[in-house]
């Protein structure tokens, strides 16, 4: 059973994650970022090649660099990439920054592989009405929340070298078991590595009736579970 992973207390953001500079419309590092950072610290060793997919402000890329990783950071948003470049310069980190849509495999630099792929992708289930604003690309992920999650699973099978590890955070609302099953079908050894519960944030609260109507949240739910999926390429 994948759900045997212990529930951990939601880690607080390391001050360094909290202090990253941002422009409006770029995701503010929060509990999901912190949970993933805690998992990263168990995987990245000096010299690891790390890819941060959907880097946003670059918080996780900077964190992996601090752990000694050689880091490449990609995002679909030019604004996020500009912010990541500035944060890398300010922190004195040498991070490669590229625009990439992870749903488009052809746009990847030829055949490069990594020891660690880390991602906090968009994973919030969203009806059509919710998709409008560009900044919402940071969290909206289609009716089941899996639009980018599934593309990332598929991409990871190619991006990881043997023994390499994918660390991806998402909400229990968008189906951790489906993610584990998809990764296993791609030949990766996958499980839920950590989970924690956090109060519902403003985005989920703003679409409570829709989420309840779809059976994704019960009337009494005022928290959401976040999980870190860990998958290793054999
Ligand atoms: C939830 S934010 C995470 C930001 C940062 N990694 C963090 O944890 O604080 C998701 C990021 O994924 C990016 N994104 C959305 N769709 C993408 C795609 N198809 N390919 C690459 N990046 C994408 C968004 O622009 C956004 O910066």
Automatic annotation (TrEMBL):
Q: Which SUPFAM superfamilies match?
A: S-adenosyl-L-methionine-dependent methyltransferases
Gene Ontology CC annotations of this record: eRF1 methyltransferase complex
Q: Name one Pfam family in it.
A: MTS
Could you state a single Gene Ontology molecular function term? N-methyltransferase activity
Q: Which UniProt keywords apply?
A: Methyltransferase, S-adenosyl-L-methionine, Transferase
Q: Which InterPro entries match?
A: DNA_methylase_N6_adenine_CS, Euk-Arch_PrmC-MTase, PrmC-related, SAM-dependent_MTases_sf, Small_mtfrase_dom
Keyword Methyltransferase carried by entry? yes
User: What Gene3D superfamilies is this protein classified in?
Assistant: Vaccinia Virus protein VP39
Which region is the signal sequence? Answer: none
Q: Which GO terms describe its biological process?
A: methylation
Q: Which residues form the Methyltransferase small domain?
A: 22-175
Q: Where does the source fall among the domains of life? A: Bacteria
Belongs to which family? Answer: Belongs to the eukaryotic/archaeal PrmC-related family.
Q: What is this protein called?
A: Release factor glutamine methyltransferase
Species, as recorded = Actinacidiphila bryophytorum
**Classification lineage:** Bacteria, Bacillati, Actinomycetota, Actinomycetes, Kitasatosporales
């Amino acid at each position: 059973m994948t759900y045997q992973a212990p529930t951990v207390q939601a880690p607080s953001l390391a001050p360094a994650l909290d202090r990253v500079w941002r422009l409006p419309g770029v995701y503010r590092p929060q509990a999901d970022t912190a949970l993933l950072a805690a998992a990263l610290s168990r995987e990245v060793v000096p010299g690891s090649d790390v890819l941060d997919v959907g880097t946003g402000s670059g918080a996780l890329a900077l964190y992996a660099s601090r752990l000694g990783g050689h880091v490449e950071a990609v995002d679909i948003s030019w604004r996020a990439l500009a912010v990541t470049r500035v944060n890398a310069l300010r922190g004195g980190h040498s991070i490669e920054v590229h625009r990439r849509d992870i749903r488009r495999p052809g746009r990847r630099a030829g055949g490069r592989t990594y020891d660690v792929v880390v991602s906090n992708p968009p994973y919030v289930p969203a009806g059509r009405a919710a998709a409008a604003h560009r900044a919402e690309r940071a969290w909206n992920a289609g009716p089941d929340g899996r639009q980018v999650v599934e593309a990332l699973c598929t991409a990871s099978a190619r991006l990881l070298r043997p023994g390499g590890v994918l660390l991806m955070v998402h909400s229990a609302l968008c189906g951790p078991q489906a993610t584990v099953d998809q990764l296993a079908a791609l030949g990766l050894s996958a499980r839920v590595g950590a989970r924690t519960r956090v109060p519902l944030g403003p985005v989920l609260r703003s679409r409570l009736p829709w989420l309840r109507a779809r059976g994704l949240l019960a009337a009494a739910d005022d928290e959401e579970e976040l999980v870190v999926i860990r998958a290793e390429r054999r």
